Amino acid sequence: MIYKVLYQKDQIVNPRRETTQTLYLKADNLVEARKLVEDNTPYNIEFIQELTGNSLAYEKQSPDFKLSTFPSNN
After folding, report:
1. Which of 2, 3, 6, 16 could make an SS bond with 46 (beta carbons 3.0 to 4.6 A apart)?
2. Rounded CA separation 53/37 (Å)
3. DSSP SS3 for 15
């Protein structure tokens, strides 16, 4: 499954919508997606959304759509 992760680069500063960033990753489930990001980045995760069907097709049209990979992500 493909997940869209909304995050802040800094865990100390209060989150602001204007600084929210996005990454996409492939994981078996939401728990694994969260663990991959938490274990491999210093990011403050705001929200994780599973992308399927029309949502996934829409996101793939974005020039920013790129699957992130992490060492434990096969």
Report:
1. 6
2. 23
3. coil
